[in-house]
TrEMBL record:
Name of the protein described by the UniProt record: Probable periplasmic serine endoprotease DegP-like
Organism: Thiothrix lacustris
Domain PDZ: 119-214, 235-324
Single GO MF annotation: serine-type endopeptidase activity
Cellular compartments annotated: Periplasm
Catalytic activity: Acts on substrates that are at least partially unfolded. The cleavage site P1 residue is normally between a pair of hydrophobic residues, such as Val-|-Val
Length: 334
């Protein structure tokens, strides 16, 4: 079984079983009619129909699966059942729904059959699925972030952090880079990149096109194997200091606190004023501000200087760490 795709291969000792024809999920189009068959609430052989609502949908718990979104009625008991096109070919595996009630609410998701084919072949030949690994944390570009990085369009995957000793680090990728293409695939949003990287063979060298300080740059990256290890952040003690222009108070982190958080620099947020620019941008107490407009922040004084130097009326690109995750936010300077 492969937990990242939620696909398993079962061996059944039987003969002359009926089979279905597998189709090509890459040929699906938004608006195309599809049919699901399953056993919702134990009602066997139930068929429901609808259209493809969206393609390559990224979900929080399915980073490496470009889900097919449909409006086909899917309920508990449909999971694992086939999604057919009108020619009777399987184009997806019904997987999950979006619901606030536990039942169907017009949004359902299926694993593309082409993803299932790849997983099945690897499980049959290797007993496991190997995926490519780049070693970056990424986020979507908003319009405000694009403006803060002097970009015309909010396209691409914004790199918020680069893991040490990773393929990205070895290739020279930096936090603040905007990845716009990976090999032959375009990266229009952050959800595009994991799918491209995950499907790349381990050891392959791939050109990575990115924007750095507004200029286009291409790096060659050698893809490594995705592992299971995760970093864990520990809480740190705080010492009060402040920088008030953005409506927040911060404290300088000691060398031990920085080491605990695996950071080279940063200040921790101690206070956030209601309705201030910081709160409106999503900053909360405990967040760590790492840089402002790609300038490292080592103290409250550094933060104040960087904010004062930023042009008024233009969003400030602020790299922060929230819990274990690094990401950029756009803070409007008053």
């Amino acid at each position: 079984a492969d937990s990242l795709s939620d696909i398993a291969v079962l061996k059944v000792k039987a003969e002359n079983l009926p089979t279905v024809q597998l189709g090509d999920s890459n040929s699906l189009e938004v608006g195309q009619w599809v049919v699901a068959i399953g056993a919702p609430f134990g009602l066997d052989l139930t068929a429901t129909q609808g259209i493809v609502s969206a393609l390559s949908r990224s979900l929080p718990d399915g980073t490496y699966v470009p889900f097919i979104q449909t409006d086909v009625a899917v309920n508990p008991g449909n999971s694992g059942g086939p999604l057919f096109d009108l020619s009777g070919r399987v184009v997806g595996v019904n997987s999950q729904i979006y619901s606030r009630s536990g039942g169907y609410m017009g949004i359902s998701f299926a694993i593309p059959v082409n993803v299932a084919k790849t997983v099945i072949e690897q499980l049959k030949s290797n007993g496991k699925v190997d995926r490519g690994w780049l070693g970056v944390a990424i986020q979507d570009m908003s319009q405000d972030l694009a403006r803060s990085f002097n970009l015309n369009q909010p396209d691409g995957a914004l790199v918020s952090s680069v893991q040490p000793d990773s393929p990205a680090a070895d290739a020279g990728v930096l936090a603040g880079d905007v990845i716009v293409a990976f090999g032959d695939g375009k990266v229009r949003s952050s959800s595009d990149l994991p799918l491209l990287v995950g499907n790349t063979p381990v050891g392959a060298q791939v050109p990575l096109k990115l924007l750095r300080a507004g200029a286009e740059k291409t790096l060659n990256v050698t893809i490594a194997k995705l592992g299971d290890d995760k970093e864990v952040a520990s809480p740190v003690a705080k010492a009060q200091s402040e920088s008030g222009m953005l409506g927040l108070g911060v404290a300088t982190l000691s060398s031990d606190e920085l080491k605990t958080r695996k950071l080279d620099n940063g200040v921790v947020v101690e206070q956030v004023l209601a309705d201030g620019p910081a709160e409106q941008a999503g900053l909360t107490v405990g967040d760590v501000i790492v840089s402002v407009n790609n300038q490292p922040v080592k103290s409250a004084a550094d933060l104040k200087t960087a904010v004062q130097a930023a042009p008024s009326g233009k969003p400030i690109a602020m790299l922060i760490m929230q819990g274990e995750q690094s990401r950029f936010i756009a803070v409007n300077k008053p």
